[in-house]
Structure formats: C-alpha cells, structure tokens
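Example S7 (structure tokens).
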C-alpha cells in the first residue's frame, strides 16, 4: 500500500478546525445516519468494501474533529441484498432518529422510494440507476447514472471507430440494474447516436459463454458494452481470450473490444480475469489507486489508518463508500456553518444548494459533486480507463456524456 507522511485529509482537517466557530450552540451533538447494504450474500464483493469506506470516513471525521465537538453516528447493517430486510432496517433506523440515509441496491431503492418521500429523508444510494431519481425529490445519485455511463461508452465507440456504423452487443445483468440502461442507449440511438445494437444478452448462471461469443462473431459484433458486475464479465473475457477474440487495440478488425460501466471493472476484475482483462475499457466517476494522484494517496492513507487490507484499500467500491460519507459530512458542515439545526429538511436544502460556486470537490471523484432541484445526479464527469499490464490506466481526459441531456 502506498503511504504518505502527511495525509491530504489531515491537512483538510486542520483547516476545518481553524475555521470551526468556537462556542457553537451545536457543540457535542451526535448526528445519526445509517446504511443498509449487502455485506454478505449477492454483490457483497462490492458491498463489503463500500461499507468499510463509509465506516472509515466517518471514523476519520470524528477522530479529527471535522465537525468540531460534534460527531456522526452511522449505524451499518447487513441486508444480504434482500429488499425485505432493507425495508425493516430502514424502519428501525427511523426509530433511531436518523437525519440522513445511505441505501445500496437498485431493487431496494426503488421499493423504498415512496417511503423516502413520505418521511422526507435525503438518501444517497450505491445504485446509480437513473430510475431511482425519476419521480423522486429525496434520492440523489452520488455519481453519473448507469445510463450516462453506458451512453458515454457508446459515444466513445462512435468517436473512435473507423469504418461505418459500429456493431455493438450489450451484456447485462438480469434485473432493472442491467436492463434499464439499455433502453436509454436505444433512446440515444433514436436521437442520432450512430451505433447498431446487434443483440442484448442477459446473462444467467451458465458459465459456458462460448456459444454466445461465437454467435457475436458470426453477426459481426465489434464491441461489447457490459452493464453488470465483475464475475460474469471475467467469465466472458476468459472465454473470449481462449477463442482469440479479444482486441489488442481499440476497434481492432476481426476482434471484439470489450467495455463496461462502474460495477464491471476495478481491481477485482483484474484479479478474476487475469491476463484476459488486458485492453478492457471501463468507465466510472472515481479515481483509481493504480495511478498516482492526491486522491489516490488520500484513499490509501485512510485505509492504512484504519488497518484495511490491500484489496479493500485499492477498491473503487471503498472509494464509493468514502464519497457518500464525504457528501453526508459536507452537508452537515454547511448547515452548521449557517447556524442551522441539523434536520432532514435542512440537510436536504444543503444538497439542493450544492452547485455553481457551492459545488463540492471530493478527493475520490474525477469531477465536482453538484445537485439542484433539476439535477439529482452528483458527479456528472466520467473517466475512461483501460487495463494495461494488469492495471487500469486513464484513457484520455475526464468527460461528460452528451446524449443523456438530449433524451430527457
């Protein structure tokens, strides 16, 4: 793990202490928040490091007195990726008097959407499903939606493909998490994005992907965009590697270039797919620790401070957990600075004011976090990465997908 003598966040903490108002009436308060997620069960490979990112950043906030004498008490519970457990957890969190909530899955976020509205609970989910914020005032996506990510990948294909309309297959999770972004890519095509979706495949339990890959080859598929999690992508890449189908350069003729959105990539994919992950293109709004930066150093320092292992420390899911804890802390800090009582209503208002000159800049993300009445998607900026020599490396500059605005 990389180390630094002085953490970036330590400097921020010192500055915050100097700016803290002495004798505040809010001194010594405890602000209750909560998180329900899959620490065990399906998707726990993402949920486990995510929970540690949330836990560690709030510990850091309290240890370094970032809120003066006040502290954040975040209750974290395992829901095993079961919506019924999530709902029960949320009801119990309400009884605890939480003022801000962190949710996890697409299914539970959609199922609890009306509950969040009814109790007016500002909520940040780990699911970046665009449907989460449709018809909702209180759900805020931390980063660009899955739809924006998939459309961004399609835009990159169009911009860098040579020779006519590129033929694309989409490989997706058999759920709303996987299906809905496909519909938005199709809307982008209707609005003028020049790609052809040859086939959309919802993966199942069958680990033999040979037939699917050979079918794609026979149909002339040149690119595959994946909207799922790491394990099925790793299986697909291994199969493609055995068949000699993986492009060694972007758009290589006669081969297939593989791309994926947030939960398909990261260091876990490289660990699962090995050499077959080479030249896999991936987009997310988070920085990676495989390249040196102030944000990478800050993430690694935090993990080291609280004794996390190398895998957790370098996980983009750990970074995602840090981000939602950072946003929660920031709205509390802003409300305190204005002398406001820390309530759901006031923290909600601080989220809505987080734009323009009031945008929030996180150490973990490639762009600013912004929200408003008309914008419930936090970090709009995306970064494309590609696996080179077993590590994800930035490809080009951070960008914002264009077509999501055109299909609203």
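Recovered sequence:
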């Amino acid at each position: 793990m990389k180390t630094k003598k002085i953490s970036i966040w330590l400097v921020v903490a010192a500055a915050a202490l100097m700016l803290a108002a002495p004798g505040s009436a809010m001194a010594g308060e405890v602000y209750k928040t909560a998180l329900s997620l899959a620490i065990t069960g399906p998707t726990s490979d993402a949920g486990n490091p995510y929970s540690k990112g949330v836990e560690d950043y709030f510990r850091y906030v309290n240890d370094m007195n970032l809120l003066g004498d006040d502290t954040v008490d975040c209750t974290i519970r395992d829901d095993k990726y079961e919506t019924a457990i999530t709902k029960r957890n949320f009801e119990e969190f309400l009884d605890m008097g939480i003022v801000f909530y962190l949710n996890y899955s697409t299914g539970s976020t959609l199922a609890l959407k009306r509950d969040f509205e009814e109790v007016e609970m500002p909520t940040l989910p780990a699911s970046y499903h665009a449907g989460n914020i449709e018809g909702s005032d209180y759900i805020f996506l931390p980063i660009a939606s899955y739809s924006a990510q998939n459309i961004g990948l399609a835009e990159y294909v169009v911009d860098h493909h040579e020779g006519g309309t590129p033929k694309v297959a989409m490989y997706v999770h058999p759920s709303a998490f996987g299906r809905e972004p496909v519909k938005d890519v199709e809307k982008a095509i209707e609005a003028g994005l020049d790609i052809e979706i040859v086939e959309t495949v919802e993966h199942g339990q069958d680990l033999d992907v040979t037939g699917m890959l050979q079918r794609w080859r026979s149909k002339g598929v040149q690119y595959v965009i994946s909207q799922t999690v790491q394990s099925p992508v790793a299986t697909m890449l291994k199969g493609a590697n055995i068949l000699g189908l993986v492009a060694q350069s972007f758009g290589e003729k006669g081969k297939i270039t593989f791309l994926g959105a947030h939960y398909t990539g990261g260091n876990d994919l490289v660990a699962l797919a090995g050499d077959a992950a080479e030249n896999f293109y991936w987009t997310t709004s988070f920085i990676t620790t495989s390249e040196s930066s102030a944000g990478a150093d800050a993430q690694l320092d935090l993990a080291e401070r609280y004794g996390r292992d190398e895998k957790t420390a370098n996980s983009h899911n750990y970074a995602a957990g840090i981000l939602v804890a950072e946003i929660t802390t920031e709205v509390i800090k802003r409300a305190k600075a204005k002398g406001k009582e820390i309530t759901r209503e006031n923290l909600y208002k601080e989220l809505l004011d987080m734009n323009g000159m009031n945008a929030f800049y996180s150490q973990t993300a490639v762009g600013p976090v912004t929200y408003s009445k008309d914008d419930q998607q936090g970090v709009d900026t995306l970064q494309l990465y590609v696996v080179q020599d077993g590590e994800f490396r930035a490809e080009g500059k951070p960008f914002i997908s264009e077509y999501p605005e055109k299909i609203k």
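Notes on this example. The radius of gyration is 21 Å.
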